[in-house]
Amino acid sequence: MVRFLEFLGAPGLRVLEKLGNMVIFFYQFLFWAIRPPYKVRHIIKQINFIGVKSLFVIFLTAFFTGGVLGLQGFYTLQKFGAEGLLGAAVALSLLRELGPVLAALMVTGRAGSAITAEIGIMRITEQIDALKTMAVNPVKFVVVPKIIAGIIAVPLLTAMFDVVGIYGGYMVGVELLGVNKGAFFAEMKTSVEFKDIYVGFLKSLSFGVIITWITCYEGYYTGHGAEGVSKSTTNSVVLSSVMVLIWDYFMTSVLI
Amino acid sequence: MIELVNVTKRFGKQVVLDGISMEFPVGKISAIIGRSGIGKSVLLKHLIGILRPDSGSVLVDGLDITKMGEIQLNEVRKKFGMLFQGAALFDSMTVFENVAFPLREKTRMKEKEIRDRVEEKLEALDLSGMGDKYPDEVSGGMKKRVGLARALIQNPDIILFDEPTTGMDPMMETAIHLMIMEAQKRFGFTAVIVSHEIPEIFHVAHRVAMLHNGTIVEDLPAEEFQNSSNPITQQFISGRIDGPIKVA
Fold it and tell me: What ipTM was predicted for this assembly?
């Protein structure tokens, strides 16, 4: 009986322990983030890595996401004779939902996995310990620039995703399928409110925190050797992606 | 001075350090020897607060670092330099940047001054012209020397060496030992060396301690240590398989 209870309780305790550790890790980030000196050069380097180097994949996925929205939207709206609403449908879908979520998932896949692998390798090759011996706090030196860069880069990438996605929808809807250009933009202008942009911005901001928090944590507390880093990298991508989708649901239900 | 008082450390059910008490005298080279995987590096990491004991105290100049928070501990760590077993170089930085790192992060020195100091250290360790290379472009022995240059760059009061000559050829091994001895004489720092190099370590260290099964079985001046009658010590020094130390 005791064994059975242990069997049931052990995974739950492990999850609780991990959650607790993650909260402590985030507290450490906050503590070191507000303490000077502020490593602006390191933050800019990370914005380049997370943001600038993700641009190509963001542009590519945004264009085709907008394109497919234009395509599907057109055939659906056509049934009701409302093709003119295509611009509004594409823009609202992207701004409120698809832009923030897909941009976050792309960043997780491209930059998040690399963040975990980088920090994990630093851990197993004792580079993290070496920082400590030089009186340099590893959370401040390694983690803080990455999370701040994520908070800055992910909303910017989302904004670009939205713009390129709308352009993709325009290309398919207006240039390919012949929707009236004036109607496309006029309906978009009428339907999109500031709140739609604001909701998308808040989502992307929180996704920036979630992705970098989880990927840094998984790397910082990686297991032993190459296998440990490989497991952490997989865990970080899966956990970040799942958390983005779950958090998206909660934010949508609150902010709708 | 560094002092361990009744330090115990466990990893799971395995007791690695079992109530160890010992001192590392100021301005001397102390060596810790013992079998691979016995916990020498674990002991070394306790001296600088990378690992914290389950019980007991680690006193650095009379201050118990096990009770300190991270900020206070960082102040104490400024007295230290450390060379890691695998050198622990930052692989995204060049050799030059690695050695310059503590100066750039922890001092307000001008770039020209940093450059001069780093070049001087690289030259002293036979690493001239290697500054632009990345750690994965240099040999294992060179990595160790780069790590050594980084540990020495701020002229710390205490330097911890985790197997400083492992993976080096015999000539470089001697050169590194001489360099540690000369630097120690010149700057008077306290050194703690974890090593396997027997009998060379007896010429380098002033004091030698042997760690076995979580305890210090012998802690004596180097000359006395060699002539110790302790069967564990003698078996280890002579490299015999038969004796109180069981070889699996």
Answer: 0.84
Cβ neighbors of A193 (< 8 A, separation 6 or more) are none
How distant is the Cα of A108 from the closest Cα of chain B, in angstroms? 22
Does the residue A6 lie in any domain? no
Our count of domains for chain A comes to: 1
Contact A135/B48, CB-based, under 8 Å? no
Would you list the DSSP string of B124-164?
HTT-TT-TTS-GGGS-HHHHHHHHHHHHHTT--SEEEEEST
Whether the pLDDT of residue B186 is over 90: the answer is: no
Nearest to A172 by CA among A55, A36, A101, A75: A75
Q: Where are the domains of chain B?
A: 1-79+190-248
Query: How does strand B55-60 pair with strand B2-11?
Result: antiparallel
- Across the interface, do A133 and B74 touch by the CB < 8 Å criterion? no
In a domain, A243, yes or no: yes
First to last CA, chain A: 47
Q: Say whether B86 and A129 touch across the interface (CB within 8 A).
A: no
Strand partners, A186: none
- Give the sheet arrangement for strand B2-11, strand by strand: B14-24, B2-11, B55-60, B63-64
Q: Is A8 contained in some domain?
A: no
CA gap B134, B91 in Å, rounded: 7
Q: Which long-range contacts (CB under 8 A, 24 or more apart) does B112-120 make?
A: B117/B153, B118/B149, B118/B153
Q: Does B106 touch chain A (CB under 8 A)?
A: yes
In a domain, A91, yes or no: yes
Contact yes or no for B199/B120 (Cβ under 8 A): no
In B, which residues are within 8 Å of A136 by CB distance? 74, 105-106
Give B54-100 pLDDT, tens digit per residue.
999 999 988 999 999 888 998 889 889 898 888 899 998 999 999 99
- CATH 3.40.640.10 corresponds to the domain B1-79+190-248: no
Q: Are B51 and B9 in contact (CB under 8 A)?
A: yes
**What range does the domain containing A200 cover?**
19-32+40-255
